[in-house]
Write a structure and sequence with these properties.
The protein has 64 residues and is of the alpha+beta class. The protein is built from two helices and two strands. The protein has one domain. The protein is elongated and about 55 Å long.
Length: 64
Amino acid sequence: MRIMRKKAIRVFKLAEKADKLGANALIGMNFNYVNFTGNIIGVVINATAVVVQPVSYMASNKLK
């Protein structure tokens, strides 16, 4: 249960960082778990922050 909580916290923090960079979505999210000594486990998450726009918006801008 602790791992799931840590994972959720890390995803939330990653989303906050992406938002500060102007992104509105995360894609290609990858989770890795690192086993340190004893009962200590680290959660490493990486993803690509992107700006997603509706296709209709993109198509109308290409016509201008």
